[in-house]
Fold tRNA-(Ms[2]io[6]A)-hydroxylase.
Amino acid sequence: MVIPDLEEFLLCATPQAWVDCALKQQETMLIDHANCEKKAASTALNLMFRYIDRPELLTKMSRLAREELRHFEQVLAIMEDRDIRYTHVSASRYAEGLRVHMRKQEPGKLIDVLIVGAIIEARSCERFRVIAPHLDETLSKFYTSLLRSERRHFADYLKLAYQYAGEDISERVTFFLEKERELVLGPDETFRFHSGIPA
C-alpha cells in the first residue's frame, strides 16, 4: 500500500491555540513527551508478547520499542540539562479517547490497536513539526530529528493494520481519524502533548 503524507492522513492540523499553550508550558510538554515515549515503547512490547506468531510485527515492534526508549532517554537528558524534575503528570484524554472505541475480540482488536498506533504516531510527528520552529535551537533540533522515525512508526503501524486485516479497512481508519479530530479540536482543561484546544 502507498503510505499517505501526514497532511493527507490526519483530518486536521494542530490548532495554533495548542502551540501557544505549549510554548508557555514547555516543562509540562517535556515531561508529558517523556511519558509518551515510554508508553509508546510499552505498547510495542505488549504487542510483541501478545502476538508471538506474527514475525513481521515482532521485528517492527522490537525496533520501534528500542527507538522509543532511546527517545525517552534523550528527553530525560534535555530535562536534566534544564533542571526539570521528572514528576508525575496525569495522562491526557487523547489516547484513551481513541482506545475506548477499539473492538474487544480478535481479529478486530489487533487491527484497531494498529490503526490507533498509526494515528498517535502521525499526530506526534505532526506536533513535533509544528512546534519545532518556535523552540530554542537545542529543542528545535531534537524535535526535528524525531520526524523521520515517528513517520516510519506511523507507516509501520498502518502497513501492518492493512496486512493483517486482509481487506480494505479504510472506513475503519476514517472512523478513528474522525474521533481523533474531535479530540484535537475539542476543548481541553489540561495541557498535554496530545491535548486539544486549551479551555
Q: What stands out?
A: The chain has one domain: 15-198. The radius of gyration is 16 Å. Residues 120 and 129 are 14 Å apart (CA to CA).
